[in-house]
Amino acid sequence: MSIDPAPAATLSEAAREIVEVGRFLSVRNFVPATSGNFSRRLDARTAAVTRSGVDKGELVEADILVADIHAPPPKGSSAETPLHLQLYRDRPEAQAVLHTHSVVAALLSNLRLPEGELVLQDFELLKALGDTRTHEAAVSIPIFPNDQDIPRLADKVTAMLTRRTDLVAYLIAGHGLYTWGRSMAEARRHVVALEHLLTYELEKMKVRR
Ligand SMILES: CSCCC(=O)C(=O)COP(=O)(O)O
Ligand SMILES: [Zn+2]
After folding, report:
1. Cα separation of 17 and 42, whole Å?
2. Is there a contact between 96 and 17 (Cβ–Cβ < 8 Å)?
3. Any binding-site annotation on 99?
4. How high is the pLDDT of residue 184?
5. CB atoms inside a 10 Å sphere around CB 6
6. Which residue's C-alpha comes closest to atom 6 of ligand 1?
7. In whole angstroms, what is the distance from residue 14 CA to residue 60 CA?
8. 190 marked as part of a ligand binding site
9. CATH assignment, 11-208
10. What is the ipTM of this complex?
């Protein structure tokens, strides 16, 4: 079943969605301490992004800032804002971007970095990702080495997204997960499904040892 793209949001609608998703992801332990960051497209040129350094489970409307997707990030916004803005430039259909720091995302990305990607296959839950129609589909999740130079990392991600139109997510080794959606609901579904799929992969590695 395909999902209708969500229309652009007003700043207060976007802020409400971001605050809600922060609580949802925080209670599931996907954004420990002050980790993670979220954004919601407002229109073709702007997006709402979270403030840097705050607990993402305790966001309030004042923690949501407006960024021009073609300009430097606003002062005080997430240290990883360039990774969000780059996605809105590279994926015009993206309406929301979510970045999480779960145990499984940090650990599995570390263990599998040498392969450069994780290929997910043979799980029914794959059908929760984008337009994937069957458990037989091979869904690739690229893994990038972590980098404190976020604009440099954003350039590497852009190069990958330009070549690979099929992607719904990527991992940063030892760091976390980035995924996006045609609505905030779709992006949130991607986080939850991927958390389970990554857990399956980690468990498979234990069984094979
Ligand atoms: C405490 S986690 C280190 C920074 C990070 O990776 C992250 O996701 C949160 O950064 P922000 O600037 O968005 O708070
Ligand atoms: Zn992070």
Report:
1. 12
2. yes
3. yes
4. 98
5. 20
6. 35
7. 12
8. no
9. 3.40.225.10
10. 0.99
User: What is the distance in A from the centroid of ligand 2 to the CA of 80?
Assistant: 7
Cβ–ligand 1 contact at 146 (below 6 Å)? no
What strands, in cross-sheet order, belong to the sheet with 96-100? 64-68, 46-50, 37-41, 96-100, 176-181, 169-172, 139-144, 117-120
pLDDT in tens, 27-86: 999 999 999 999 999 999 999 999 999 999 999 999 999 999 999 999 999 999 999 999
Ligand 1 binding pocket mutation candidate from 101, 109, 146, 148 (most atoms within 8 A of CB): 101
* pTM for the model: 0.96
Considering only CA atoms, which residue is closest to atom 4 of ligand 1?
35
Spatial contact of 125 and 197, defined as CB atoms under 8 Å apart: yes
Cα 176 to middle of ligand 2, angstroms: 6
Cα 135 to ligand 2 centroid, rounded to whole Å: 30
pLDDT at 8 over 90: no
pLDDT of 111 > 80? The answer is yes
Q: Is the CB of 17 under 6 A from ligand 1?
A: no
Ligand nearest 56 Cα, by number?
1
Evaluate: CB of 201 within 6 angstroms of ligand 1: no
- Binned at pLDDT 50, 70 and 90, residue 152 comes out as very high
H-type helices in 6-149, by residue range? 11-27, 81-90, 103-112
The bridge status of strand 139-144 relative to strand 96-100 is unpaired
Q: Give the tens place of pLDDT for each residue, 164-194.
A: 999 999 999 999 999 999 999 999 999 999 9
